[in-house]
Amino acid sequence: MSLDLLPFLLLILHHTNGQNSPNISIGSTFTAGNNCSLLSSCGGFAFGFYPVLDTLFLVGIWFNKIQERTLVWSANRDSPAETGSTISLTNGGQLVLNYANGNVQQIYSGAARLGIMQDDGNLVLRDIPVQIMFGKALSFPLIHFCQDKLYYQQQNSNSNSNSSGNLKYSAGKFMLEMQYDGKLVLSAYHFADPGYWLSSQANQGNGEVNLVFNQRNALLYLEKGQNNTIYSFQKNVPTPVEDHYHRATLDSFGNFQQYAHHKTNGRNWVRVWKILSEPCIVNAVCGAYGFCRSNDNETVDCECLPGYVFFDPCTPSNGCHPEAMINFCTNLSAANSKVEVVKDSDIPYQDVGDYEHYPDTDEEGCKKLVMDDCYAMAATLVNRTCYKKRTPILNAGKTSMTKGSISFIKVPTKSAKDGISARKKKSNTRAHLTAGLITSSSLAVLFGALALYCHPAPRRLIRRKWNPDSSRMHCCIDQ
Q1: Long-range contacts of 294-300, Cβ-Cβ distance < 8 Å, separation of 24 or more
Q2: Lowest mean pLDDT segment, chosen from 12-26, 284-298, 337-351, 432-446
Q3: Do the Cβ atoms of 96 and 29 come closer than 8 Å?
């Protein structure tokens, strides 16, 4: 898919060593790799091509005045553009990303006449003179401050935003969503997760619930109707508020947090608050068959359950897979499996992850329940109740809240794994022998045919049988 760029009528851009204008008009275009962007009038925010690698760029908006230029929104986070790609506000009024390889992405498909990079960090497209065609369309998170104006973002009912992915800029596996019922929910949506955190208040009666940002005190809260707060986030933001940039983000490990950065003296972003005090509470944070630890309640350390190994050691959060694939139900015996016991841990994925409950059970009893059930790959013992788990196993971890709980993981024994390896070797040897016999037989036939063919007496027989007219057809080379 491709689109020829229309001749531009007016080009209003900012170069690093030139003048700044916050506006673009129809026909404006600029190119990835040319180090140009559209700045807000205060210079605090920029729109353009944000470099993520030497030759890859995101179309986005970022904080421009601080040393750590932080991206806050992108139109192509899962498809970075290469050097030579362009952004254009076409004569038809569409905001278009033209990739260098010929692909095209419409960022806005209406009929705008003017684009403005505002001091609140929002790119607004307008029809002349005043109608707003496109604006406040930035995917959450986006909370920031510039001069005397604070960006006011509201997230309406039935809207959502994704976390960052493994590449920091790509879409991740977690989502912040405002549901129809007025609850704000965090979930690992790729895993059909109903949510690992949600606001306690539901939308009862009429009135839309919004996630809003208070311009006076830099606080986030849920509001129903006008000035009816139904949920407030923590209140320890730095003051004076106007001296700081502010942003909220859903990070790659599924935690929703707010940060502040002093406009003149700050060297980095300082966290104001976070929703979750225990990082391992996040559903599927270490992927399938992963095991989450967090010794400091800040960082997430992903390991594999006993008997499992990482899909990608460089990205532990992608989860794990079995070292050896064994069908325990084909030979139900203690010889092919054992149960590893992990103290002070849990696999809390109730309703979805549990398939059988056994109350009044001790440690040995729960272990035996796993051993005797060929379909059970794991179980947990919590408050003397044994919970057998469905597969894939999710949310295994050790936190301050799992003390006293016990996890049981079924893994193949060494003899079972050796048996699989031996069968594989035997199968491979048999395959090699079969192939060798076939090859040897074929070569024997071939050599026999060649010997027969090259001997003088047989050649005369062949000539007499297959070539009665030697002047027309020759079966062998010249004698």
Answers
A1: 294/399, 297/400, 300/253
A2: 12-26
A3: no
CA distances to 450, 456, 474 from 465, rounded to whole Å, are 17, 14, 12
Q: What is the rounded average pLDDT of the residues 372-385?
A: 94
129 upstream amide cis, omega within 30 of 0: yes
For the entire predicted model, the pTM comes to: 0.73
Domains in the chain: ranges and CATH: 1-138 (2.90.10.10), 139-276 (2.90.10.30), 290-412 (no CATH), 417-466 (no CATH)
Degrees (nearest 5) of the Cα angle 392, 254, 230?
120
Helix (H, G, I), strand (E, B) or coil at 462: helix
Instruction: Give Cα 236 distance to the centre of its chain.
Output: 31
* Confidence bin at 191 (pLDDT 50/70/90): confident
CA dihedral in degrees (335, 337, 342, 346; nearest 10)? Answer: -140
> Could you tell me the two tokens for 182?
């007025």
Residue 119 makes CB contacts below 8 A (sequence gap 6+) with: 22, 40, 41, 42, 44, 45, 146, 147, 149
DSSP 387-429: EEE-SS---EEE-TT-TT-EEEEEEE-HHHHHHHHHHHHHHHH
Task: Say how far residue 453 (Cα) sits from the centre of its chain.
Answer: 66
Q: What is the pLDDT of residues 452-464, one digit of tens each?
A: 444 444 443 333 3
Q: Mind listing the pLDDT tens digit for each residue in 118-159?
A: 887 888 888 754 444 444 333 323 333 333 222 233 444 445
